[in-house]
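User: I'll paste a sequence; please echo it back and then give the predicted structure.

Assistant: Echoing your sequence first, then the prediction.
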Amino acid sequence: MKQDALELVRKCNSCQLHANLTHLPAIEISTLQSPWPFAQWGIDILGPFPIATGQRKFIILAVDYFTKWIEAEPLAKITEANARQFLWKNIICRFGIPAKVITDNGTQFTGKVFTTFCKDLHIQLVHTAVAHPQTNGQTEVTNRTILRGLKTRLDKAGGQWAEELPNVLWAYRTTVRTPTGETPYNLCFGTEAVIPVDIGVPSHRVQTFDFNTNDEKLRHNLDLLPEARREGRGEGRSSSSITAGASPDYRWSLAGPPPEPRRTTTGASLDHHLRARC
């Protein structure tokens, strides 16, 4: 009976179609749509804080939902004009026009100035439900992280939070985030930042850096990227099914490309190779 069941499964069309990848029939590889980097941002207001220099007592903060990159700026007043200027200067001018912006129901985000600005740029503006901040959960989590960082660094010197904010942002951007397994800096720029620990105990990248060859090495890495993509095409599919297609992403540091795949051989193939050379 067990053998009969096994034969039935082997001949069942539905079982073959929904089996593991290695048992799937060969299909033509289709073109993938290009992703939209920095497509969705969440924006929120923190404060009021103890009054800092320039009468600043608020923080306007934005976080990209994928890379977890954050932009923040201390402000004295939170107005529609300030919110619009922050969106333009800190997000659009640096990362391009997003597809969606998520905010709370504060008047600085629901007023005509801000909403018209988003409408003119075809940005979908989404407001969270009243008394339900979880709708913008990514921003709320980031808010807690920033507040914790400020409290840890300042202790009782609360009025210096504006001067300490860049340090907290830098630490956040260069720390691995659990959802992605990468630092926001790496996801934004394709390489890790040189941080103080790389200088105190010089890393390999710092020790081997050469002004004269750095540009050449960067161009070399760029030249290797198409080759690495070609080698990765069609993984998990039979070679006969590959006609054209998408390529997986390969990321590496400035130290060089990823190692070549390990190659194996058998006694028969080695014997054939040696005989051919004799």
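The first helix runs from residue 2 to 11. The chain has two domains: 40-189, 197-232+248-259.
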